[in-house]
Amino acid sequence: MVSVEPLSAVDPQLLPLLSKPLQWYQGLTRVLQSKYQERHRSLTSNDGNIQHVVVLSSTCSDAFMMLSINLHHQKAELCCVYKQLKGEGSSRASIDCRIQGLIQDFVNACCFHLWCGLL
């Protein structure tokens, strides 16, 4: 029903964003919650070891961006999640056109956090 695509699959140039230490992603959580105050949702497992921050689109209800932090495995993921349209299979062209702005905005927030860490 949905496709979950890591940012590295969306654009291989984003691979460096997926190799940061776990603390960097925990800081990114705060940046995303601040930037997307009205358009984010935070979900945490009962034991507190798995956390998801979901960034919703204001223009496309069929897609969202997600930061997942798993303290059990000491890893994090940045993903795009979108609903597959009936009859389209995995047609990247139509999907990219609908959610490109959401992806760009999310990546810009990640880059801002990266830039702030350099200061």
Automatic annotation (TrEMBL):
> Can you list the GO cellular component terms from the UniProt entry?
peroxisome
Q: Which PANTHER family does the entry mention?
A: KICSTOR COMPLEX PROTEIN SZT2
Q: What is this protein called?
A: Uncharacterized protein
